[in-house]
Amino acid sequence: MKEITILGSTGSIGQNTLKVVSGLQDQFRVVGLSTRRNIELLKEQVDKFHPKWVAIADEEKGEQFRKNFKGLVGEVFIGAEGLRKLAGKKVDLIVIAVVGSAGLLPTLEAIKSGNDIALSTKEVLVIAGKEVMEEAKKKKVRIFPLDSEHCAIFQSIEKSEPKEIHKIILTASGGPFYNYSKKEFDSIKAKNALSHPIWKMGSKITIDSATLMNKGFEVIAAKWLFNIDWDKIEVVIHPQAIIHSLVEFIDGITVAILAYPDMKIPIKYVLTYPHRTQSAFKPIDLHEISHLTFLKPDEEKFPPLRLAYAAGRTGGTMPAVLNASNEVAVETFLKDKISFPQIWQVAESVMKRHTPKFNHGWKDILEADSWARTEAESIIEEL
User: Fold this and answer.
1) Which residues lie below 8 Å from residue 134, measured CB to CB, with a gap of 6+?
2) How many CA atoms lie within 13 A of 240 on its CB side?
């Protein structure tokens, strides 16, 4: 029986992971869970799975949990340091599904402890993909992508050499506003953007999907996950979200992974890897699919895709700056304090102000992250 820890267990990916684990109870034991501040749901999860450890990022909520539910678990870790402590506990697999840059240091701690990782938080690779993958290689740690698109690529190229790949194609649904005109963008409010036409996700990733920033982040993450040149990564709009990504090989063969949109499918694949096991998921019925369409992304209407490519190609600390400024802008948009287009306008303005460092270490990356947040807040105040 494999021991598993889930960072971000009360979020969308975390909850889906626990649903999958519930059907595999003879194979997995949940030993660690974490939340940012949803201690009520965490308590329910603790009652069901009986982990040895929990971590709560919010210090006030953490102390509240420790006081009210003392004795339910062996150890309660509190704050950002607590999250890192939990990530450092030796397990067979750790699922990292915390939101945004908060996943970076726990990921490094998990690698340091030799834990194999199922990575949902793509921002970890956006911020420091080269460094994270190098650390994982040194420690002989495997990083499995939980993201639907990256998991599809992983399945398609697992036994292939990078030189055999002509192109990888990331599919994007386009989000709820792909057919809007640019004039309509200013009227978009957070409540409109939180309604994704295909996927049910957390608020941050839902907004990123609406702006196409999420797809841009997937491009950067794919670069490091699959050790592939920027010119070999392409994005296509596929509204039906049936094909989860494609890989075009040098011999003219293109491999595609098809499945109905359900995050539990890639989660189960990663958890049971390298084996495939019987499941209750509905297989694709080609007779039900009337058509599959593919469109070229409109980078004029959705600049975040262009910004992500630019940040990735620039390298150094620039991707960390893009991620941090976007996080601040999205959080502000969710409060209806800036407009939809101002999300990427803020991010681009911060990028223009940044002089990237290339011979950088972890300290430089974290300093760039902090600097970008301050700059983004300053720009927002002036809007």
Assistant:
1) none
2) 14
Q: What is the domain count for the chain?
A: 3
HSE-up (13 A, CA, CB side) for residue 95? 33
Given 119, 146, 173, the domain boundary residue is 146
Same domain, residue pair 29 and 44: yes
Domain hosting residue 333, numbered range: 315-383
- Return d(Cα 248, Cα 295) in angstroms, integer: 17
Q: Are residues 97 and 175 in the same domain?
A: no
Task: Say how many C-beta atoms besides its own lie within 10 A of residue 264's C-beta.
Answer: 18
Structure pTM?
0.95
249 Cβ contact list (under 8 Å, min separation 6)? 160, 164, 165, 166, 255
DSSP string, 312-334: HHH-TTHHHHHHHHHHHHHHHHH
Question: pLDDT, tens digit, for every residue of 100-139?
Answer: 889 999 999 999 999 999 999 999 999 999 999 999 999 9
